[in-house]
Structure prediction request, 270 residues.
Amino acid sequence: MGFEGLIGGQHTPISGKFMLIFGNLEAFDTFDAANHDTSRFIHEDVNRVWSDARLAHPVSQEAYRASALLPFVQQADWLLDLHSRHEPGKPLLLAGLLPRNLALARKLGTPEHIVVDAGHKEGVRLRYYKRLGAADEADIFSLLIECGFHGDMNSPAVAFNMVARFLRAANCVSADTFRVNWLQPLPAQQTAVQVTHAVVAHSPNLRFTQDRHDLQNIPTKGTVVAYNNDNDNDNAIAFATPYDNCTLIMPSLRQLRTGATVVRLAQKIP
Prediction:
């Protein structure tokens, strides 16, 4: 069902203009629910290529796609990047380090969990590109939401809810625009955590010490969460929690390779 079929009679934004852009279409065309990891990208993650140097001389399918989207991205004053996940987990709203985006995340009131982070060393995310990531652009906002697992039937509802609230916050649509019930109940409260460390694989031999899950709280400082190489190897690198009540953000070995971030460590912030 198209966007116009899901909203009321007011199809034209009351201010600005609304652009809905699909990301990596070539990868999506390969989607297989039984083997969904293989359709994450063709050559590389499309959300790691957003730098002028990469876009000026694209060498991957994803960089070419990003170059094609660039004229539209450059027009965006408010950007919402919608993602689904290859691991089960609760929705996460990634706000970056700019205070204005954290303030917007809290104004939206949903989802329950906000993550403040600096991105990945592997490359630049879309929401950090140029104006979107500039500290002095007070009227520019960008958020990324991990809506949930690919196969979770609630993930689309999370996306619709966030789109509706985001457009309303931007004064792009009126409060009564949406014909169907896109808006979901707000959580009782929101919790924000700030990423302080990333566990990056030094080799494909990294393993967690036990099953780890998203938003897991590790109560004691110094708890080893992962080893790179076998546990009984004297040269193994141990990754331990740097403080009490450390929160694990999106631990996963599904995309394990040298240089990949397998989990991020975060602490609660006011």
Notes: Confidence is low (pLDDT under 50) at residues 1-6. Residues 155-169 form the longest helix (15 residues). The two ends are 40 Å apart (CA to CA). The longest strand covers residues 191-200.
